[in-house]
Amino acid sequence: MAKKMVQRKIVLWLGGLIGISGFGIIVLVMIVVLLIVGIAGGSASQTVNGGGSYCSVTGEVNHDLMDSTLAGAGKLAGTKDMIIQLSSEKGIDPVLFAAIAIHETGYGTSNAIVNKNNPGGLMNPATGSRELYVFDTLEEGLRGMANTLHNRIIKDGLVTIEDLGSVYAPVGAGNDPNGLNGHWVPNVTSIAEELGGLTMNCEQGGDVLIVGDKAWPVPSTKTITSVYGFRTIKVNGVWQSRLHAGVDIAGGNVNGKPIVSYAAGVVTKSQNHAGGWGNHVVIDHGGGVQTLYAHMIEKGVPVGTQVNAGSYLGRVGSTGNSTGPHLHFEVYVNGQTVDPMLYLTPILAGASES
Ligand SMILES: [Zn+2]
Asked: How far is CA 270 from the centre of its chain?
């Protein structure tokens, strides 16, 4: 990323020379060459998912890029920490949130944000949703927008920029006579890239394996590294039989990769368990069936979150009692663990049939 920024500066500097030099054409050719190099250099350090969204190289927020991009976004300048805090409360990607806020407000300059503290363009129901809501502070307005995004992303499962664009700015809509909605997805995508890349849902889109109404929980790998059942382990020099009550899914570069819900349900636990499961999430699917997702790199989506099969829950890590990054996945039926492969094998079988 640093390399790319330097190249952008060189391009601007050469652009400034055109008027002075009189070698405009030569400079123009050089700019084109530098632009091509810049684009190639940039894309080599980024991962593009099936939907074309740019993803953070490290999987983390790039604080410098987020600060510098927001600094050039009018009233949104200096809101990075607020956006990160609200995103963590709502289980959404701070980079996606910021990218949409920047685009929707025309880089922090729209009437809605400047005069009404309303970056999300939320309408006031008291006016029959004809007028924009007026928030007392920008933080309140950002909170309202975070709530809306939470509902679209977490509750409705619209996890990619393309999915969100289909709701925020439907192409071909009757209220879009000039076809401006067509800019929404490419603009939000390129702003997300400017901010340092998305930090969530980068493996989602086409890569989540959903068969019927069930999803494979780790889109980036299907490797089982430890199965359900009794293991004989040595504890204080004595061999003991212990139940490994779930399956472990790992392999490759699984650290920080998304974990998704096996099926529809509601999050009933989202906490840290230092000595055991680390950061973990439990989902109640109804009918006495629950699933558990352990050792997440950070706290998963909050309690009360409604999920669908394939909804984002958190990211693979190695917190708690774990020797390396993996998902420890358990299935409970009426409070008792059962072999998760009884539930996971049909997903793999369904995928190989089609
Ligand atoms: Zn395990």
From this structure: 18
CA 263 – ligand 1 centroid, Å: 20
Ligand 1 centroid, distance to 175 Cα (angstroms): 52
Same domain flag for 314 and 331? yes
Q: What is the pLDDT of residues 126-183, one digit of tens each?
A: 998 899 999 999 999 999 999 999 999 888 888 778 778 878 887 777 777 777 777 7
DSSP-assigned states of every residue in 198-213: B-SSTT-GGGS-EETT
- The answer, yes or no, to whether residue 55 has pLDDT greater than 80, is no
| 138 neighbors 75 (Cβ within 8 angstroms) | yes
Instruction: Please state, in angstroms and rounded to a whole number, the distance separating the CA atoms of residues 156 and 154.
Output: 6
Same domain, 252 and 346: yes
Compute, in angstroms, the gap from residue 130 CA to the centroid of ligand 1: 53
Q: What is the pLDDT of residues 132-143, one digit of tens each?
A: 999 999 999 999
